[in-house]
Amino acid sequence: DERHSGLDAGADTAASQPPSVQLNVAELRYKVEVARMAADMRNGARCMAFELPTAAAFHFLRSLEAALHQHFDVLSKGANRPSRSAMGIYIEEIVKLDAQPELVAVLRQIKDLHRNPIMHPDAIVSMDEVQIILGIVQSAIFALMKIVKAAPSAPSPASPSTPVPASPAPI
Questions:
Q1: C-alpha pair distances (Å), 158 with each of 51, 54, 56, 112
Q2: Over 80: is that where the pLDDT of 1 sits?
Q3: Of the chain's two ends, which shows fewer C-beta atoms within 10 Å, N or C?
């Protein structure tokens, strides 16, 4: 989300910059979240390899939440994201935007049966349970990203016309 990525949808535009050095905020946000999603899946796999199933489940669920944020961007046509990035809030928001009922049911199941319980400090996930979580998360991410990629503005789900200047090269 914007708080963690350092992106600000209200950033000043760089009208004096040539178009070749401008990045679209939505496209940049999309790329940051895809990278975050991949990193969380990779870190979850590493945790599984070291038999740290609770940590693995946490990473897999973070990856799902990144995909859910992108799905919201597509359904809302680039509207501002909710101020809180809780999974339940995003689910309610996509329901208002006529998300597929079957997909909403899966997301609620993941939230209620896996994500919310795992967030408690005393929760411990077994290796068997993390394999189940990985499977359902992969399925949900596939369904969410299928919609994101099919959006007319893909690969950048939301395409506001607010450009930001590209970062200058390090000195």
A1: 38, 33, 30, 28
A2: no
A3: C
Tell me the C-alpha distance between 163 and 14, whole Å.
7
For the stretch 9-42, what's the b/e string if a residue is b when 16 or more beta carbons lie within 10 angstroms of its beta carbon?
eeeeeeeeeeeeebbbbbbbbbebbbebbeebbe
Helices (H), 16-171: 25-49, 53-75, 87-96, 101-110, 116-118, 127-150
Write the single-letter amino acid at 94: I
DSSP β-bridge partners for residue 165: 22
Question: What sign has the CA pseudo-torsion 2, 5, 11, 17?
Answer: negative
pTM for the full predicted model = 0.75
86, two tokens: 């809780």
Question: Which amino acid, 157?
Answer: P
Amino acid at site 163: P
